[in-house]
Structure formats: C-alpha cells, structure tokens
What does this fold into?
Amino acid sequence: MRELDRRTLLWGSAGLVLAGCGGGSTKAEPKATTKGPNIVKPQTGNVVTQADTAALRKQLNEAFASKDVEQLVALIDPGDFALDDVRKRWTRRFDNFKRLGFVEGEWFVGVPTGRTRNASGGLVEYDGDLVFAHQVRGCDAQQVVESYRASFRKKAEDAPLELLHLGDAEAQFDPSIWDVATIDAIETKHAWIVFRKQDAAKAKDFAGRIEQGAKRAFDLMPRPKGVDKVFYAMTWPAVDGKLYGGVAIGEADAHAYYHPFLDPAELSKGQKTPADAKGLPRATGRVGLHEGSFTRPDFVDTACHEGIHVLADQWNSGSGQPTWVAEGLAEWGTNGQSLMATDGGRIRSAFGQFESVALKGYDEFHDSPLEYEFYQCSAAIFAYLEDEKGRDAVFETAEAFYGADDRKAAARKLGRSEKDLLAATRKWVGA
Ligand SMILES: [Zn+2]
It folds into this structure.
C-alpha cells in the first residue's frame, strides 16, 4: 500500500499492566512520620535491583549471542505454558539471523514502577515488558524495539531475578518477516532485499529494479544520518500486508511499515520514550512488496515511492502527518518531473474535491473513487513548492508535518495554513 499504517499511531497508548505481588505480604511501606529527623532509609525487604535485572539481561544476551534456542529456553521457568511458542519463534529467528548476518540484537530488562518490592522480604512477582532491540545494518540508525509480555519473580532478597513467562510480542511488530518463513537476502548498494527461499530466483531477477527504485529515493531525499539502505521484504499472498501488525491493504501493491525509535531501556520499564539522539533519525520503516507489485509495469516507481516513505520516517514523530503529505511527497519524488504532463487534466478536474478531503483524515482520502487523483493532487502541492521556492521548501514542508505534534502546529511552524497552501497549488495547476 502506499500509505503508513495509521494504527501504528495508536501504539503509544498501550499501558503497562502490573500484577499484584504473588503470595507475598501486601504490607505498605512504612510511612515517614512527622517526628524526628527526615532520614531517607535504604530500601528494605525483597527488592528487585538493577544488579538483578543486569544479571538476567546478561544471560539473555549470551543466549542471543550463541543463537542456541535451548540456552534461551533454559532461562524461562520450565512451567511456562508458552515455552513451545518461544522455542518455535526463536528457533526460526536464530536460523534466519545467522543466515542474514546483518541483524544485531540485544535484550533489555527493566524494573517497572510499582510492585517490585516486598517490604517483609517475601516473594516478589510481577508482569512487565521484556524488550528485544534489533538493528539492521545500513538501515537502522538506532535500535528498533519489540516488547514482549513477560512475568518475573524474585523469591527472596538473595535470590536471582527469574523469568517466569515470556509471552506475546506487542502487536505492532508481530510478525516480522523473519518470523514467517525461512528467509535469505540479497544486498545491493541501496537495499537489503529479503525473500523466502523459494522466491530466490525471483529476488535475483528483480534485485536490479529494486535497487534502481531505492537509488532514486536516496538521490532525491535528504539522507538520514547512518542510513544507506532501505529494507525491502518480498511478501506473498499469505503475508501480503500482514507483517508488523498488519494493515488493511485493499488493492494496494506495497506498503511501508513505520518503526519508531523508542529508548529500549525506558521501554523495559514500561515507558514509551522517543530515542531522539541529536542528529539521528526518529524512525525507520520496512517495505513490504506484495506479490501483486511484481506484475506492475511501473515496478521501479513503486520501489522508489515506498523507499521515500521509509526515508521520510527520519522526521516522523509518530503524531500522524496528513495523508497528502506522506503520499504527496512520495508521488512527487517518483513522478514529479512528468506529473502535470501526464496527469494535469485529472489533477485540475479533481482539485476542488481534493481541497476538502486533504484537510480530513486517512479514510476520506483512501476510500474515495478519486483516490488516484488525490495522490496526484497531493504530489502537485510539492511540485508547486519546488517550482515556486525550490526543493528545500519541499523538504521543509514535509519535515514540518512529519515532525510536529499535530497539523496545526506544523502550519504554525511553516507560517502558512494548509488552506493557503492548497489554494496556491490550485492556482498553480490552473484548476
Ligand atoms: Zn504511499
């Protein structure tokens, strides 16, 4: 599909759920009295400490480094009902990671705020998020996080922190391409192309065209620091549009999945905090090239369009840029030079309707019979900006909308309302 998944925007709303202490005392911490000096007492009782989480984390990371699934499984309570799922998922992952050779990863274990202490020294048991962070070499300037529902236990003060249960991955990242098949990859200068083993010949056949599309995206877009490749996954009917939380694909042929960079250590404590290191991209993406895209005569354009979505994620704050911004930038970048010559008539006739739809949401844009025209009208906004003010104005506008808290804030930053921009574009296209 040629749109970011709006459901990902809701991702930040999922909260951390803490279970009660299992079997331990529910006695409250002693409260400071008003008498006497105000002495801060050290934490007493059975407390989950940073040393505890560091020890568990070290073991998990050793298991990841060994790529030995039994070493991972051995760290989970043998009574966990989900052990078979863990074994299945991580057997496939380790096998794929070993073959790919360009995915680094590590675990993060945190202490969530709340019931990780038993003042009387008894058992502490709680639910939290166990975070696996990975980085695809060349694509991800920062770590991409996945969190798993997990349960932890510390039996006594001098006992280690144990992993009682390793559960499902948070829906937005589930499944990844490496969870659904035995996969391999081809590296080109500007792309990692990942495919099922049985699609190896097709991947080889299309690698040059995917590279062409990716190269065009890189030639056009400001390059995100630390990034020189776009990640393309060749999908097939059973998983077309179903990776990374899935998306309503409709007639779409390809889709760019948004991956925000969140601080993995904070996430393991239950806090979704942007990993906004200065100068580094705020997010990345993965392209899913659906089976249908490979029969398109404009396949290279599709690879370029999706590549632009991924590179635009460098600005993405996750607040939801208007649909015309995402699609307009990608279409302008793909067809900008020939836009008015090819589609001028359709743009002029649809522009009136587009002006009201552009100010609305995702559904109004995509569910319209004029969807194709709306893509081209969106591109015309950027073609107008380039013509009047140069290419910098194109990226300044895209960045403002991608990075702002909401579209009004973006307009304020630009010093120009969306309505003004649309009216100026209408004049420019001659509608
Ligand atoms: Zn698109």
User: Anything to note?
Assistant: The chain has a mean pLDDT of 90. Residues 2-3, 305, 309, 327, 330 surround zinc ion (CB under 6 Å). The CA atoms of residues 258 and 285 lie 5 Å apart.
